[in-house]
Amino acid sequence: MRAERTHKKSITLTVNGHRHELSLGERPHEVSPSHTLAHTLRETLNLTGTKVGCDRGSCGSCTVIMDGRAILSCMTLTVECDGKSVKTIEGLGDPKTGRLDPLQQAFIDHSAFQCGFCTPGMIMAAKALLEDTPSPGEPEVKQALSGHYCRCISHYHVLRAVLDAAGKTRGE
Length: 172
Ligand code: FES
Ligand code: FES
Hints:
With 172 residues, this protein is of the alpha+beta class.
């Protein structure tokens, strides 16, 4: 498997429904073996909605959804993502109408952010939870967001926003 990868010249990555063929190498706009997915999203694909806080797997701000699971993009090497499908905060709204995802709207409605640095990661983690568990209780939401740090606000605003979005998604 490893030998096969080293001979590859490119990998494919689908991000927010767009398929990208990314050349492997050390030149600008190429993917080096040491590049994290967070780096590739921000620096190569210019998707800067994904934030990098600690860059060592401790804060949750770099969270994206890969093949349906919330993952830390700072702890994921891009070369390991060949053929995967990734969703970032830029892919949540409706591209046709520009309408925000109900989760994004709920964060606004509940003032669930201040500086907003941690917010994309929290929203993506919550989105993965709601896709898997459409009617989560408080314990599930707290568990899903347990690795996410915010310097600005009470996490209870976030909790209310996610539970509210879950209710709207269910049509309550
Ligand atoms: S930047 Fe990835 S967990 Fe902090
Ligand atoms: S809103 Fe500022 S770090 Fe969370």
